[in-house]
Amino acid sequence: MAQPHDSASQDDLHDIEELPCSVNVYHYSSMDEFCRVISLERSRFYSSFPIAQGNYKGRQDNLIGLLQTEGTQSDHIIFIIHPVAFENDFLDSSTDLPFHDRISFNPKNHLLVVKMPVSAHEQAATGFNDTLKSALQERGIEKTILSWGSTTLTAEDGTTKEADGGWGPRRPPCGAPKRPSVVLEVVSSETPAKLRRDANYWVDPAKGQANIAFTAKVHAKIPQITIQQWEWNSEVSRPIRKTDLTITKSKSDGKVYFIPDQTIPQLLIPFHLLFRQPADNHRERDIVLGTQDLVEFATLVWDMQFQNEQE
Predict the structure, then answer these.
(1) CATH fold of 119-310, please?
(2) I want to staple 115 with a disulfide (CB 3.0 to 4.6 A). Which of 25, 59, 102, 225 is the partner?
(3) What is the DSSP letter of 70?
(4) Has this prediction a pTM greater than 0.85?
């Protein structure tokens, strides 16, 4: 069984990826060994919580649980892997990969980062997709959008990454990249630096080429979700945060609040950024995810996240 990488340089690897030191680092040897490590790390990750309808069958790990106390375990794993091995085993495989975790790979430093999604993450990705599609449906343009899901995308520099959700025009205009124009990253233990790093990748014109990156940070122990919206600023050649709001529910009265307290909490997706072209008629307007949309989105996530407490 593979053992975590142990050397003085391990801290440097964490610094490179902007991840906490609690993240274990392994040397990649084979897909079978990789899957065994994933199984081990998942067991550690969920060990402090009861499993709801959890079944483990070989490589198909369907465990459903909650995160451990923040700071004690991470939902990330780092593997040191040669680019040729990554291409052969992860990109050129003729069969479906035997896991459902999100991956990102940087061939320059030979680091493969795995993010283990939990039930609340999956619900957040599904809920955000449903919320966006509902807003598009109100304008009668929902069929003009393509959902990319967690498709693996590779940039020109060889870096590879998976988002938790992606959307873009079904028929991009001539010359536009055939990639999602809006992406979503659902996170739990990421540091602010890691969030900025992920957002930077997705909206960088030389990498992810998206126009908007949303990050939804789901708090592990309380009903609280922080959503940030990032867009690329060509004048300073870096992403800027356009929106930063937190949705939380009071334990005392069960009401949902927004931080900061805004008159009309909402997310605004400019039409031209989503469709990569200017609006052409009255239906083609900016997409607004309003206050009630965000409340319903958060409630769906919390219902899944804290289902054991409701029984």
Answers:
(1) tt1808, chain A (3.90.1570)
(2) 102
(3) B
(4) no
